[in-house]
Amino acid sequence: MPVLIADVVDAPLDLQAHLDAVEDARQGATASFVGAVRNHDPQIDGEVTHLDYSAHPSASETMAHIASDVAARLDPDGVARIAVTHRVGRLGVGDIAIVAAVSSPHRALAFALCNELVEEVKRSLPIWKHQHNTDGDDVWSGLT
Amino acid sequence: MPVLIADVVDAPLDLQAHLDAVEDARQGATASFVGAVRNHDPQIDGEVTHLDYSAHPSASETMAHIASDVAARLDPDGVARIAVTHRVGRLGVGDIAIVAAVSSPHRALAFALCNELVEEVKRSLPIWKHQHNTDGDDVWSGLT
Amino acid sequence: MDTTSVRVRYWAGAEAAAGVQTEDLDVSGANPVTVGHVRRAALAAHPTMGDVLARCSALADGRRLDDDAVVAEGVTVELLPPFAGG
Amino acid sequence: MDTTSVRVRYWAGAEAAAGVQTEDLDVSGANPVTVGHVRRAALAAHPTMGDVLARCSALADGRRLDDDAVVAEGVTVELLPPFAGG
User: Fold this and answer.
1) Strand arrangement, sheet containing B29-36
2) pLDDT digits over C3-51, tens only?
3) Chain B residue closest to A14 (CA)?
4) Are there at least 3 beta-carbon pairs closer than 8 Å between C and D?
5) CB A87 within 8 A of CB A2
6) Is residue C36 part of a domain?
7) Which residue from A37, A107, A111 is facing B28, i.e. has the nearest CB?
8) Domain extent at residue A13
């Protein structure tokens, strides 16, 4: 189960780069996910203006483990090709925080793996979100 | 449940155009799918060189029904934004046959809807696939 | 009302198997004419089409019809092989 | 071996709540020192941190530790609030 990209970066994310990385003439199905900053969030009132993602130093390494663990679990034959990156630093509304792409010969595997990859990132990637709104309030996600 | 794009076209498909169509500051999660022509297929021996997709005249209209039916079924609150297009005509290996993108405030809905959309297209869109391989054989999918 | 023939439109692989896109099939004696009669007439006209015909769905005026459905006069019956989109 | 203090590193929201990133907490009297002792010492140092501390996981040498885990001498205990990636 080749993991082509599994990283945490402080730079804008490029979905097409992830799609290109997983592309393969044998793999007809590519599922992908883009998580963007929304202008509202249940954990903060009013309108979100921007947020800061910070990461534990182990984040990149953890992302690699997440990708290979999810692949090993859902794709024992190792046919899927996987690319996933999470962004850190300051992001505005609409900016992309996470991109994942998975190609496989079969749709179901591509969707299942891409979905689980994003869920596992949410569960296990040591990244924190500090949101700010138009009233100047700020909140740390998960601590409200 | 706004369906922004639901069509069948005889021209190359553009995933980014579908992502842009479904983008919305309130929708943080966008799942998408790309189905491309593979160089092999269980229904034909050897290596696929190209294939021709042909469509019944009702295909475009049917695609619109598919999109709204799937949305009505899975997204009764109508929050998801949907864009899906299938290509007809001659395609080579690696060319994109179908693109779907679904944005929603929540990941699970985006994935579920995008997945079901592609499955419903496979079940109900009146489109046929005529595959050709390097040996000059040809086969109509579903009739082997 | 005694219909003697029904127009049939074959699509994709069905057209390839029949070797013709559209034809009028003799269904005299069938009253009323059903989709089943049309299928049998198509098989009679193209004896090697059995497998393909068995997998085709029938459409008339945009509606899918079962074999027992009556085919109104002047309506073209379309025979569609399994779909293969995506 | 009588450890008198443990170094603690607070991350993200925990750092914000503690008002400090890293500090050495007095755990004299605890033998052996466990993560539980460290949490209690952190709370003593920052009485308003209760809620945040309760939601933090503890990490030492890259491994997650339960409250009853022993903290070896010289090891820094990291306190990580719930993750919020994706």
Assistant:
1) A3-9, A81-87, A96-104, A29-36, B29-36, B96-104, B81-87, B3-9
2) 589 999 999 999 999 999 999 999 998 889 999 999 999 999 999 999 9
3) B16
4) no
5) no
6) yes
7) A37
8) 3-141
- Which residue from C62, C78, C83 is facing B124, i.e. has the nearest CB? C83
Of the candidates A124, A125, A143, the beta carbon closest to that of D55 is on A143
Out of B97, B98, B127, the one facing C83 most closely (by C-beta) is B127
Q: Check which CATH number belongs to the domain holding C36 and give it.
A: 3.10.20.30
Residue C86 domain-assigned (yes or no): no
Q: Identify any residues that bridge with D5 across adjacent strands, giving them in sequence order.
A: D26
Q: Do D13 and A143 touch (CB under 8 A)?
A: yes
| Residue D80 to residue A56, Cβ atoms within 8 A | yes
Total domains in the fold of chain A = 1
ipTM comes to 0.90
In which domain, by residue range, is C42 found?
5-80
**Which letter does DSSP use for residue A96 in this model?**
E
In a domain, D55, yes or no: yes
Angle A42-A46-A50 (CA atoms, 0-180°, nearest 5)?
Answer: 85
CATH number at residue A93: 3.90.1170.40
As for how many domains chain D has, the answer is: 1
| Residue A144: band (very low, low, confident or very high) from pLDDT cuts 50, 70, 90 | confident
Q: Cβ A111–B115 below 8 Å, yes or no?
A: yes
Residue C85 resides in a domain:
no
Judge: C85–B58 Cβ closer than 8 Å, yes or no. Answer: no
The count of other CB atoms within 10 Å of the CB of residue C67 is 12
C16 contact residues in B (CB cutoff 8 A): 140
Are A33 and B36 within 8 A, CB to CB? no
**Measured between alpha carbons, how far is A61 from A70 in angstroms, rounded to an integer?**
14
